[in-house]
Amino acid sequence: MNLIELIQKLISIPSFVDNKTNEKEIGEFIFNYLKQFPYLSAEKQNIGNGRFNIFAKDSAQPKILFACHMDTVEPKSGWKYAQNKIKDNKLYGLGSADMKGGTACVLDVLRDFARTRGLALLFYCDEEYNFEGMKRFAEKYSLRPDLIICPEITDLKVINGCRGIIEIYFRVTGKTGHVASPEKGINAIDGIINIVSLIREDIKKYEHPGLGNAALNLAYLSGGLNKGVNEKGNLVLGNRGNNIPDIAEAVIDIRTPSKELNAGEITRLIKQRSEEQRLKLEKLEIRSDLRAAFSPKEKIIGFEGIDYGNLKEQGYFDVQIISERFDSPFICFGPTGGNVHGADEWVNISSLEKTKNVFKNLIQRSCT
Ligand SMILES: [Zn+2]
């Protein structure tokens, strides 16, 4: 199998996660593929439901760790091209860009070596869902590689960090009353809007020269007259115009560039701002508390002469979890591609060869 055939093989094995499908079958393929390299030993780490991570390494202490997620998002409708169609230097398929193209580069480059010293490979589950694969790997293993590389599409640029994610749900109560005298009530919807704008100001001071500013998205807001809770635990809300709404709930998502700006700090701000608005904070749930990561250029070996990308445009990469845990710098580096998480996802074919060559030089230099 050449590089392109290998990507096509990976694309031909569905690895999105729902009740019937998961990463098991693609995991078996990768696990068996690795057996052809006598210098590597591979093991499975079960994460439940038949799903498993694969960790492979040679006999030396890992210096370079490649981290590749095996799952994709669920298929979307509206595809114009068949899976694995090649046209105009583009290969189309679910996962072609995110990230079976990059994974195939890692798998294929192994054939160029008869042995390595200090090479480790992780193929893991659940990156597009709940980061379960990465969390479980971080719990079990303890390594200290010089560099962790995640072959996501980056347009052949080095991406040396990402902002973290804080997602919080909260609910506040105010005081109802007749709209004719609003000063007698406490409007819970207005209150949440005020809380959110104040927190937007509060977090402005968290700025990182590489990662940029903190960004707050008010993702969900609902409120009205409190008529209790239904059997599913959801609020029942009155929506008549003549009542001051006395209950409201919201979900906020904050992209944080700094370790100091975390779910604990946002919780403190929500409490403080709610009190100032004379609102009672009824409920607060932290749904995500993932840290930012930044790997200084001087710590990144083997990518000299390659351009660095703009970190301010990047989403979160779960490889941050092991970068923090192992205290090892990480980067993302991979081919060019597009339509990620949508129809007609593609990867640029010539950028795949280039990606593989960068990996080859790196392994030659660090692991032989
Ligand atoms: Zn990805």
TrEMBL record:
What are the GO BP annotations of this UniProt entry? L-arginine biosynthetic process
Q: Which residues form the Peptidase M20 dimerisation domain?
A: 161-275
Q: Does the keyword Metal-binding apply?
A: yes
Pfam families according to UniProt: M20_dimer, Peptidase_M20
Q: Which UniProt keywords apply?
A: Hydrolase, Metal-binding
Q: Does the keyword Acyltransferase apply?
A: no
As one GO molecular function, the record gives: metal ion binding
Q: What is this protein called?
A: Peptidase M20 dimerisation domain-containing protein
Organism listed in the record: Candidatus Nealsonbacteria bacterium RIFOXYB1_FULL_40_15
